[in-house]
Amino acid sequence: MGLTLLAPAAFAQTAGKLDPGSESQVAQQQQMWDRQLQSAAHNTEQAERQAWLRSLANLAKLRIKLAEAWQDMGMTRQGAKLVADAYDPEVAARMHHEPLRGKSDQEVAAMLQAAIREEHFLTADQLLIDYQRNKLNLGANQAPAVNW
């Protein structure tokens, strides 16, 4: 039992007595860790910036495609751009999505018209996206007939 009590005391006495070479080695190790942390932070920042730039480009492409889809349904170019430019995927991801399953093309068209009439452009965009996704999943690729 005396040996187990002496071991921590002996360690405590020698722990404070590092030779100068060991102190230098510890300092070098700390500097290496600091450089690695700085490098990792820089790489993360660069990756986040690239992802942000890519997301902006993808959002611009998505809005162009949305405007084309609105035009294909008979909306004017200016109106289609106005509605498509309202699309924000982050907000759309958090909003309520109207269930479209089981709804006819006419019912969806009425929902789209109501959203546009009430100037709920983001809702209209998301309805159109959801409608197109449902159609693709069912094998049909036709937009609902909407009279503007």
What does this molecule look like?
With 148 residues, the chain is mostly helical. The chain has one domain (22-138). 76% of the residues lie in helices and 0% in strands. The protein has 6 helices and no strands. It has helices at residues 2-15, 20-72, 77-85, 89-94, 105-117, 121-138. Helix 5 packs antiparallel against helix 6. The longest helix is centred in the N-terminal third of the chain and has 53 residues, at 20-72. The chain is elongated, with a radius of gyration of 31 Å. The model has no long low-confidence stretch (mean pLDDT 84).
- Structural class call reads mainly alpha
Main sheet characteristics: none
How many separate helices? Answer: 6
Number of separate strands:
0
Determine the N-to-C terminus distance.
92 Å
- Supply the number of structural domains: 1
Mean pLDDT, all residues? 84
Helix content: over 70%
Radius of gyration: 31 Å
Question: So what's the oligomer here?
Answer: single chain
pLDDT < 50 stretches: none
What series of H and E elements makes up the topology?
HHHHHH
Instruction: Report the principal-axis shape.
Output: elongated
- Please indicate the percent range of residues in DSSP E strands (runs of 2 or more): under 5%
Which features does this protein show?
148 residues, single chain, mainly alpha, 0% strand, 76% helix
Compact summary:
The protein is mostly helical.
Topology:
Elements (H helix, E strand, L loop, with lengths): L1 H14 L4 H53 L4 H9 L3 H6 L10 H13 L3 H18 L10
